[in-house]
Every structure is written in structure tokens, then in C-alpha cells.
């Protein structure tokens, strides 16, 4: 049991001998490993009928697998997925059961075979320490130093420097173009701007029809995209930043910062729909409390009070989109958001 | 018996000869065919991981024949009426196509997804087995790290695959990833561009994930599985303690034919179960979610289970006040702590644990006999504490479903989890350690006093006793084989000549760690203790009772050893011989 002693400065406290002393000097300190227990025969080892029974069971299980494979092929031809979800599910179910039987039958048969019919005598194999014997180690070290001497690397230091530099620099040929190109134009300042600008109409998502203030009734929630979104370059990226959620709130209940008094229109407020936590669309609005809940991580914003965080992992309010109406009476943006939308990042305030 | 070879035998012999002359394969066959592997059900967990990976490869190859990794937009035309004319990426459309129009395609998709979940589940449970039995000890520390990297790669494989269909759920998952990546100081924005090839979502992410998912990650996994198994062969498998099992041998059954049949058969069992799951249990029905669009989101969405802990961690973190601005630069700690720091800590602890324990024991020997978890109370308790934190985070990742299913306030649930995620692991550590010590005491009790036989005997003078049956030496060995582990003792800082010893500081730290690990302990019964226990009962021995095999133990009255049921060395015994006898 005890191989090399722990090679450390510290020692374990030596085993007490006090209790041994009471009982004479022949009691060992530890129990001895008694060795393998006597073998216990299985039923099939002694009873040929039981072994025959096991054999028949194994054959039956292999047969089950064959039936499963045949069933699978029949189902493949006889039950195509069809045109509906229901017919597709049926096809899937039959194929699945066929495949299950085909595989499971083989598996259980093999395991049953091994457990009941193959030898169950435990065998013992010796282990050897992982480390190589001193002779081999010495040989390995000799081989390396001989090789190093042959190469002359120790004597020729200029050569050493050259090989290290060349090998270290060569990967740049892959890394430079990869890093250069993989991030597109690397212009991360795009996070700051959205499609919103002075005069751009607020339109319904996804139809793109403009909205009049009278249509925004109390309690209704408008999912808004900027007018002309689909004509923009990279419209999906623009949509990912520009989506807005708009609600009308009773002016008595609306709390507005002094510098934002003219950002709403007749109690209609518009906020970025992208959560300031990690960027999920914030979509669950509760009309009674004016709370807006992010379904991803439950950040909760108070729409009646500057979209302040009332619960959850977000730490900043949703950015507000200043709105007004144009000459034709449609809701428009006064400007872009005054801060980057969505989750925070290092140079956000720079 | 005929001595003439049959045609089949001659063909086999000819082939073997052909191969051996060209490859010398005979040596490998001779060494490996009858190689011994030990048997235990818990050794199957790693096998499940291996076989799910094979099933992933088989079903995955099938899927690549039909999946189109492109974010180009097309209008859907196909049997699914609800999607008729909807604009979607080719990735999503091809996912619908292979689900609805390729016979067996949905089965393969669902098998693939279930196999991925099983792959991660079996890796995690396999890791638990290795952890709790101490199989990571020398010489297996490197293989523990290989396995750890495999787990991380498994997470990567799952994540990249989950996002491929380009549906609303996975798209929002990618967006969360983007948000987390952006929170990283200094390089966050650039990393986001690095991943998406520009702004989120861009048009590169699906093809990039595809390459990761089908080439890079599985290639690495395959290579590391090779290394993992190679090291298993080099080290020879560990075995559980038992009679005849030592650190110098391996006891079990030969590879051929027993494990060829058992392990080979088990692959088919795993495949069969996965096929049954794929055939009967719907998973990720993307046709219900629709193609990705940056605006919609669905409530009650959960990531695959192995990502839930991250999701839960994000959900639990309170936000307000945690976004720090330092010198004009933003540090969103409300994202960094739960998504980077906490998983980083959990994973680092896991990866480094073997080295911490080796440091605490100062033990440089090889270990091939596993520990029973109870015999390493602090290790077992640490593992349970880490798992408890992990499971609380998983539950927190489903807090919205808990709220809707049990009609509870989500805010309350979240607040409770915030407390539990810190309190419960500590409690779990303490409770587990106590349970381990209790089980060790029970083992001692059993060894010292034997099994209760249920036979009550009245002695001549009227005393009633229960007859106890002593353990046979095989059963006893399992309970007493482990080494008593004791805290390392610190050698004095100065040697006899008063010179300050080198490395004293390091040893002081080591001694402190070692005390944490081994101060509270129950040591295995020694032969002397057993002899003492028996001699106490000697005068009560029944003449001729079952051939003298049975030993009478006066259960309580004669149990005179003060703490025979478990000698726990307390803090008072620090530095002394710890056994309180």
C-alpha cells in the first residue's frame, strides 16, 4: 500500500501506539488486505438450463433489433412526413421507435450476453509506477543532450535568436489579415447612433405605417420602428438599435425631468426597446403599474418615471426618444437618442 | 475435435498475418485484448459522454447535408402554412426544410439536440464522480484538466449549435452574448465586432458559428477525447476500494470479450435511448418561434440547461449602483460580476482543485484506489457546496417559470435566490461534512460491533443482550482500508542552530490549508481497536453460540469506549496525536 513516502518538509503525525500497547505486541497497526473474496457462481455457471435460457433471451433481443430496423425502413416508405405538423410528428414518432428498437435491441442483447454468459471471474493485473525507471530517464536525458550538442544550439547563440524570432513572427501572416478583416470596419462608434433623426416618423413594427397621436390610446403599447427602415443599408443592424416602445400615460401620473418636459407628446412617451442590461428587447408592459419588464432577466422599468430601473439587473434607465408631431399630424422624432442605446460598454461615455 | 481449420478461420488467420507483417499489430493485440478494466456503474458516466458524442457526430453529419449556414434572406415556400411568405434567413428556412420535408430529418435534429443535452449532463456527472471519489489525484491531474477543457468545449459546442437555426430564441441568446461581451473592459466593443464581423447581428455570425460548430470545436473535442482515453489506458482505470484491490493492481474483467460486449453494447443502448427521446419528445420546435427579428422576444424562454447557471447568475445580480464609471470609462459590474467573475471563479476552483488538495496533503504518491466520498469529508463538502451554488443558479435561471407555475412573485423569488446563492453553499458545506463524519462513525460502529442479528439472548442472571454478527474480513476491509489523513505538522521556523528555515512561509500556509482539510476527522478502526472492542465483550460470550462465530455485544451498557463510535479530533487536539483515545 505505502509507496514512496511523502517527499515534503512536513510530516504527518506518527500513528499512535498507545492503544496497541494495551493488547500485546502482535497486533498490526493497520488491517491487512484480505485479497479477493471467493468467487460466487452465477446461476448459469452451474445450471445449463439457466445458461440456455440466457442464450435464448439474447437471441430474442437481437431479433427485436432486426424487427426495429425493418419497422424503420417500412415507416420511411409508408409514412412520409406529409404536409402538416401532425403528419410530420407521426413520421417522426414511427422512425424514432424503429431506430430505438434497432439500437436498443443490439445494446441490451450484448450487455445481457456479457453479464450472463461470458466469464465473470475477476482478474488481476499489476500496475507499475508511471515514472520511468532511472536508467530510462538517464537514457532520455543523454539522448536530448546528445541531440542538443549535435545541433550546436548552445554554442551558436545567434542561430538560437534567429530560429526563435522567425518562428515567433511567422504566425503574423495568418493573424494580421484575420484580425484585420474579421471585425469588418472595426468602427465601434456605430454603437452611438441609430436611424432616428429630426423629423423621422415613428411607424408600426413591422408594417411601417405612420402613427397619429390620437391612435395611441391609454394602455396600448406601440412597437415602433423608424420610417424608411427597410431602405436603409444594413437594415437589420439598424432595426436592432432603433426599435422603440411607445405608450400613452395619464399626464397626472407622468413624472418628467425638467429638461425632458418637451420630449413627450400629450403624455405619449417613447423609449428604446433595447434593455440597458444585456440588450434583450424589453417587451412586457403592465398597464396598471406602468412597469415594463424584460422577459430575459426581469429588469423592470417604470415608464411613468423616466423608465427608471425599479427591479432587476439593469442599472440604467432606458434611453428616451424625444418625439413631437409633424405638419401632417404624424408622430416624429425630434432627434436621435441622446446616449447610446442598449448594454453598457467601456467607451460608452467617451 | 477436428484439427483442420474452417474456411473462416483460415481467412481470419490470413488477414491477421497480412496485417501483422505490415504493421506488427500482433504486439498491440497481445497487450490490449485482455487488458483489465474494473467494473462499477459510475464508470459508465464517462462512457455515456463518449457515446453521446458519437451520436452527435452521426446525426450531425446527417444535418449538414441539408442545413444552409447562410443569413441571406429569402421568402419561405413550403408545407408549413404558418410561415408561408415570411421573410427569413436561409439558415432558418433550411432548418424548416430538413424538419418538415426530409424524412427522418426532424428525428435526426431532435436526436442531435437531445444528445447534446445528454453529452453535457454526462460530462458533468462524470466530473462529479471523478471529483467525489478522488480519481483526480496523482497521476491523473493532467487528465482532470483534459476533462475540464472537454467540458468547456462541450459548452462551446452546445452554444454554437444552439444558435445555428437563427430563430427568435437563439437570436436573442446571441444578443445577450453580445451584451455580455461588450461589458468586458477595454476590448469589449472590439470583441463584439470580432465575433459578429461588425454590428450585431450582421450577416457573418451564422456561417462563423457553423465553422466553429462542425469543424473547430468537434475537431478539438475529438483530439482531446483521444488524449483523455490514451491517458486512461496509460494510467489503467482506478478501482473502488474492496478486498484484493490495491494501488499496485487493477481488478476487473478483460477488454475482450467482456468490455467489447458491455461497452460496445452500451453505445447502442445510449443511441437507442436518444432515438426514443428524439422520436417521442419534441425539442426546440423552431417553427413555433419564427425566424430571428431584432424586435420580438418571447417570455418564459430558457436556454439549454447547461447555460442556465449563467442565465440565473445574470438574473440574480441587482443592477442599480453597480455600473461604475471610472475616469469616464464605463465598467458594468452588474454584467461583469455574474457573467464573467462568478463563472470564472466556479470554473477556476474546479480546474485547480486537484492541485489545492495535493498542496494540502503534501502527498506525492500515486493513488489508484478511489476514495469513498465519506472518507474525504472536506472534499465532498466542497464539491457539494460548488454544486449547490450551481443548482441555485440553474433554478434562478428559471425564476420566471417558477413564478408562473407556482403563482409566486418573481421579485420575491429573485430576492430569496440572492440570499440562497450565498447562504446555501455554506450550509451545504457544513451539513455535508457532518454527514460524512457521521457515516464514517457508522462504519466504525459496524466494524467494531458487527451487524445487529435481531437475536435477543437472556443470560443466566436475567440480563438481555442482542447478539451481533461480526463482519467477515472482506466486508470489513472496505470499511477500514482507507488511510487516516491528518493535518500536516509545521516544522519549526528555525533549525537547531537557530537558522531560519527556507520555505517556512509556504509550509505555514500549507499547514493551515491542511488543517482546514483534515482537522475534523474520524479515523478508520485499527486492529488494536477491534481487539479491544471484542475483549470488552469477551466475558459475555455465549458458549458454543453458532460455533463461536458470534460475538455478544452489550449494545449500550458495555460500550465503555468514550468515543468508540467515532473518534473526532477536535480543535483542542491540534498538533497532538489526534486520536482521542
Major β-sheet strand ordering of chain A? 3-4-5-6
Sequence of strands across the biggest β-sheet of chain B = 7-8-10
Radius of gyration of chain A: 38 Å
CATH topology description of the domain at 193-333 in chain A: Rieske Iron-sulfur Protein
Count every helix of chain B, treating DSSP H or I runs of 4 or more residues as helices: 19
> Which structural class is indicated by helix and strand composition of chain A?
alpha+beta
The largest inter-chain interface, given as chain pair and residues per side, is: A-B, 123 and 154 residues
Count of DSSP-assigned helices of chain A: 8
Report the span from N to C terminus of chain B. 68 Å
Walkthrough of the structure:
The complex is a heterodimer of chains A (350) and B (581). Chain A has 350 residues and is an alpha+beta fold. Chain A is built from eight helices and twelve strands. In chain A, the strands form three sheets. In chain A, strands 3-4-5-6 form a four-stranded antiparallel β-sheet. In chain A, strands 7-8-9-10 form a four-stranded antiparallel β-sheet, with no helix packed on it. In chain A, strands 11-12 form a two-stranded antiparallel sheet. The longest helix of chain A has 32 residues, at 85-116. Chain B has 581 residues and is mostly helical. Among the domains of chain B are: 304-439, no CATH class; 450-483 and 521-581, no CATH class; 487-520, no CATH class. Chain B has 19 helices and ten strands. In chain B, the strands form four sheets. Chain B has a three-stranded antiparallel β-sheet with strand order 7-8-10. In chain B, strands 1-4 form a two-stranded antiparallel ribbon. In chain B, helix 6 runs antiparallel to helix 13. At the A-B interface, strand 1, helix 1, helix 4, strand 2 and helix 8 of A face helix 5, helix 7, helix 8, strand 4 and helix 10 of B. Strand 1 of chain A pairs antiparallel with strand 9 (488-489) of chain B, so a sheet runs across the interface.
